Here is the input.
Amino acid sequence: MKPRLNVVTIGVADLQKSRQFYMDAFGWMPAKGSSDEIVFFSHGGIIFSLYPMDLLAEDAGLPAARSGFSGISLGMMQATREDVDATFRKALECGGKSLIEPRDTFWGGYDCYFTDPDGHHWEIAWASICEYDAQGSLIMEE
Here is the structure.
């Protein structure tokens, strides 16, 4: 099997609070296998999961302490500029914190940044060149 990205797990301080944030902000529903110890959200072949930060760090053999920018930004593309605005507003209403308000970008798109309740960085963007399949997955030619 060709190696591919199929799981993204983020460490969180309060699993139930984070589960509720992602359910309320984006309408994501926990997938099969979710429990009081881990939460999975299915995204067309990629699983986004939430796991307690201290346990995730322990599993990886790393310290759990975080400071500043992690060098990773999670992203979601939207079909329209208006969708970017609406998704950003909803994330903030549900406990996200604004980093960059929606704006036109240097690359011809439209984006914004926020953090989830645990400080994980998210970009919400629109680009005229993007295409989506029937399930809403981004299509990028190899």
